[in-house]
């Protein structure tokens, strides 16, 4: 090798060594004392061994600080690049808290913007790890630092839906930068160190924490105990997703017989419709090996969403949970449903809706909060789904919930119903009271409350029989139609066969520039 290259290689090696050190040994020790990994340690865990190729390692903050003090700025506080995660190509970035508290500088934000664009152009997943005091914005020679941030948010918006984006909040993330993880598809928070906050006064001790965003704001999808757990969760999520919107999600042989008949499913639902049950029990019985990756587990818990497999095929499950608020729909569960179903449709993942709901909540409080537009948003989104759609009516399918969860006239690929299922505009009890209130009053006049109850029970049984799926199934053109009433024990096999039968289906929407969703 020619000697002329020696000097350059020495300089390159020295620069790379500086980059490897981040903000220096002292800063790395502080990071470890907070039970956080450094940016490079996170990258090493995320990517397959030896598979990470860094981009931008030689970048530095080119603007002299106002106070004249020199501070190390390797990568301008950003570690980023690409490689393989479990053998699949991906791009990732991590904000380095050891470099000026992870503050996002001018070059750093442009690096992130370009990486987002690369992920969209290459059609590969993007993984982000946030650990930053916010934007490093200050006036330097007339520069205010917002231009690159606008570019980053523009690309995050424009390339949304091209490939999956998973964001991990592993430390603070404040100010305008707080929008970045929320613009991803899924957010994973480290319970010990995550803090997400736009600005302003905090009125509780939990404000901005993982718990706050999981239970209150709905801006957190998973809460984990450590950086290592966050990275493991990101890999687990990716396993259900395709590389991009043009591909199908990966099939994985789970070793669980897709035709398995589950006898225990008959023991889950109580005989009396007034009693509740936990829909998780049904989900775990029908999916491969009982493995269900729940999304937003502690948010709007009356609606359950998450990923699983049936016969090795990835699926998304949306299920009303009668154990919580009788499985009703309100504004938070409507938003939770809307976001999840749109993600499934975007990345060709079948959606399985499991219905047992008394509909959307009525009343002045909910009208003031916009329950109508939230319900309309669900209707709008389901009407635009082109992925595989399978509806299973478990028990109650009342009012608007019947439509938004994939009734026959919303054209899912198939509507199955358990024989105990009921379709109705509202609960049978309300209908009996509304229609037969005069007759009930007369019965009470003649025979007292005991006679009234006897007459009420008879009417209720009659109405329930008319609303039952077994009755509705006799009329193919009924508004409340099921295409097949099934034995609950066959639910797994029926879903599996429908997924296989619809793998090649093509569903087209009316041509238009874009749609306008109710909001």
Radius of gyration: 27 Å
Beta content comes to 15-25%
The beta-strand count equals: 17
Helix content: 25-40%
Amino-to-carboxy terminus distance = 65 Å
Which whole number gives the mean pLDDT?
90
Number of helices: 17
As residue ranges, the low-confidence spans are none
Report the principal-axis shape: elongated
**Largest sheet, if any?**
8 strands, mixed
Kindly name the structural category: alpha/beta
Record keyword descriptors for this entry.
single chain, alpha/beta, 8-stranded mixed β-sheet, 7-stranded mixed β-sheet, 36% helix, 17% strand
Describe the structure.
With 519 residues, the protein is an alpha/beta fold. It is built from 17 helices and 17 strands. The strands form three sheets. Strands 10, 11, 12, 13, 14, 15, 16 and 17 form an eight-stranded mixed β-sheet that branches. A seven-stranded mixed β-sheet has the order 1-2-3-4-5-7-9, sandwiched between helices. It has a two-stranded parallel ribbon with strand order 6-8. Helix 4 runs parallel beside helix 5 (147-158), helix 10 (331-346) packs parallel to helix 12 and helix 14 (428-435) runs antiparallel to helix 15 (437-467). The longest helix is centred in the last third of the chain and has 31 residues, at 437-467. The mean pLDDT is 90.
